[in-house]
Design goal:
By secondary structure, this protein is α+β, with helices and mostly antiparallel strands. The protein contains 18 helices and 21 strands. The strands form four sheets. It has a nine-stranded mixed beta sheet. The relative contact order is 0.14.
Length: 573
């Protein structure tokens, strides 16, 4: 990773770095690679990190989050080969005043791992999980034991080989399991009309599948950090199921069920006015597709009228018109930035031509509509993994905000309609002033909640800090509508616009919670900065008791604050 990439991402907002199509594609490719690792000079390592465990190799590493907005160069890092080495590293860090940050694929937006501006000499140690903590074995016919460094693609491939799978999963296959569980990663799925949950599956987040987990925690008897395994029925496990980086989990056992063949139909012929119509409207509404199939996603390019709608349905045998797919990532026009889109992005960033946002949105819609036909991808069928995973590291990288609105399934269309109406009105109002804060997409997904009974373990507890945790005060809420808005980093007025959307959601829907890995807590200048949202709205969305229980558990299991950073310190107060 070079500074050229980070500098380019800021051009158009005061930088003089020239943006060309070739430069944009080179930068996207660079962001898709793993961080550069520089072998540590033994003498320097011994001087700066005295008594570091000899069996663990040290190196210098850059940190880059998904979009390159949070960067740090020259941090000390290591890749323990097993959980025992992780414990040795953590104890060393505690004794030497350093904080440990677990790193998987760095596919996230928020500062849960590293804060922006972290200096190379900061007392931080990255612990890379992906090189070695990747074990996969079946514990039983309905449970898999997995290292937290394994990618979701590797996990799903392993499960598929044993006739097993998940109801839903995040679209990127490069996410590590540990990172996904830390932020309650999810897909898009609710039960269709008449559908019952099948054994080993959940309509909630991946965290809701955990049966047990092994974490590094403080042991007061020995006066050191140790490995401890927690089962799902233990109170402390409830906090660790979605720990936001306030712990380090090395291994989990997940409940899994029989794999399913899924058909994924894509279409771009339904206008937004119909798809997102007011509740009770006739026609091809978003809710009608949920009734029919239970699994739907809308990708709505800015300043366009026809969203890209994906609808998945369980199909044991291949429909006559479907194309059989034997591998994931079946939308190459989306996985790789097309020339037309790259040219427009280059102009927007190099010339500050933010007014081209409507042109870019329509170009992306055209590419999707034509690409679905040209690649025969509008109607695909195969084992679940092959239709659920569709985002590669080479896709267009944008900054994103994210929220989950808890509601009743019957109210999903109302939530979608009111949000999209507000979004459309504000986008038009900004454009009338010559301001174009969004040049990406609105993405809408719908999931069930994290009902602990899905784990099929007596006494299982719901994840404390999952956005999908059911609300005791609102038992009628059984569904979450996930709402994300994406735009290029550095886009003027984006933070101001996204703050308006955030305030609208908190004001309009009592069940609003933030999506941990994305952008939230906006001021007019920055994300993760609004003190009222950080200190009141976010804790309040879970309830004082739940938030306090989670914070207290993290402090007790890590009293020295080894697992944390300044942002997490602010969040948990």
């Amino acid at each position: 990773m070079t500074d050229h990439v980070a500098n380019n991402l800021q051009s158009g907002n005061g930088s003089s770095a020239p943006w060309t199509r070739r430069g944009f594609l080179l930068s996207a490719a660079a962001l898709a690679t793993v961080p550069v690792l520089l072998t540590a000079d033994p003498a320097l390592a011994a001087a700066e990190l005295p008594d570091f465990p000899a069996e663990v190799d040290l190196y210098r590493s850059a940190y880059r989050n998904w979009v390159g907005e949070i960067t740090a160069d020259g941090l000390w890092a290591c890749a323990p080969t097993d959980a025992d080495q992780v414990v040795s590293v953590v104890n060393w860090a505690w004794q030497h005043g350093r904080r440990v940050r677990a790193r998987g694929s760095s596919h996230g937006w928020s500062p849960l791992t590293i804060e922006s501006g972290t200096a190379s000499d900061a007392p931080v140690l990255l612990v890379d999980t992906a090189p070695h903590l990747t074990g996969l074995t079946l514990d039983s016919a309905s449970a898999v034991r997995a290292g937290t460094g394994v990618t979701l693609e590797a996990l799903l491939t392993f499960l598929e080989g044993h006739g097993l799978g998940l109801t839903a999963a995040p679209a990127p296959g490069d996410l590590t399991l540990g990172g996904a569980l830390a932020i309650d990663a999810h897909g898009t799925a609710v039960p269709a009309k008449g559908e019952e949950r099948t054994a080993g599956h959940t309509f909630g987040s991946l965290s809701n599948l955990v049966l047990s987990l092994t974490a590094v925690v403080w042991d007061s008897d020995t006066g050191a950090y140790v490995l401890r395994t927690y089962t799902r029925d233990e109170a402390d496990c409830a906090a660790l199921l979605t720990h936001l980086g306030r712990s380090l989990v090395t291994e989990v056992v997940l409940r899994v069920g029989a794999n399913a063949n899924l058909r994924c139909l894509s279409r771009t012929d339904i206008p937004a006015t119909e798809l997102f119509a007011a509740p009770g409207s006739d026609g091809r509404t978003f809710a009608s597709f949920l009734d029919e199939a239970g699994r739907a996603e809308a990708i709505w390019f800015a300043f366009t009228e026809f969203p890209w709608l994906k609808v998945w349905s369980v199909a044991p045998t291949k429909p006559l018109t479907s194309r059989r797919v034997s591998s994931p990532y079946n939308y190459p026009f989306s996985d790789n930035v097309p020339t037309l889109v790259a040219d427009l992005v280059g102009r927007i960033l190099s010339d500050g031509a933010w007014y081209l946002a409507p042109v870019l949105g329509n170009a992306q819609l055209d590419v999707a509509a034509l690409g679905l036909t040209a690649t025969l991808s509008a109607d695909i069928w195969g084992p679940s993994k092959n239709t659920l995973l569709y985002v590669r590291p080479t896709t267009l990288r944008e900054t994103a905000n994210g929220y989950a609105v808890l509601t009743a399934l019957a109210q999903v269309q109302r939530v979608v309609h009111e949000f999209t109406e507000f979004y459309r009105e504000r986008l038009a109002a900004y454009a009338a002033l010559g301001r174009f804060p969004v040049n990406g997409t609105v993405e809408i997904r719908v999931t069930g909640l994290d009902h602990s009974a899905d784990a099929e373990l007596t006494g299982a507890r719901a994840p404390l800090l999952s956005a999908l945790r059911p609300s005791a005060e609102h038992p009628e809420w059984d569904t979450a509508v996930w709402l994300d808005v994406l735009t290029l980093p550095g886009t003027p007025y984006a933070e101001e616009f996204l703050r308006e959307l955030e305030q609208f959601l908190f004001r309009s829907f009592d069940g609003t919670r933030v999506e941990w890995s994305k952008g939230w807590a906006y001021t007019d200048q920055a994300a993760w900065s609004d003190e009222q949202v950080l200190g009141t709205a976010v804790p309040g969305s879970f309830g004082e008791s739940v938030w306090g229980q989670a914070a207290g558990t993290f402090d007790r299991l890590d009293p020295h604050g080894v697992f944390g950073n300044a942002f997490l310190d602010r969040l948990f107060g």
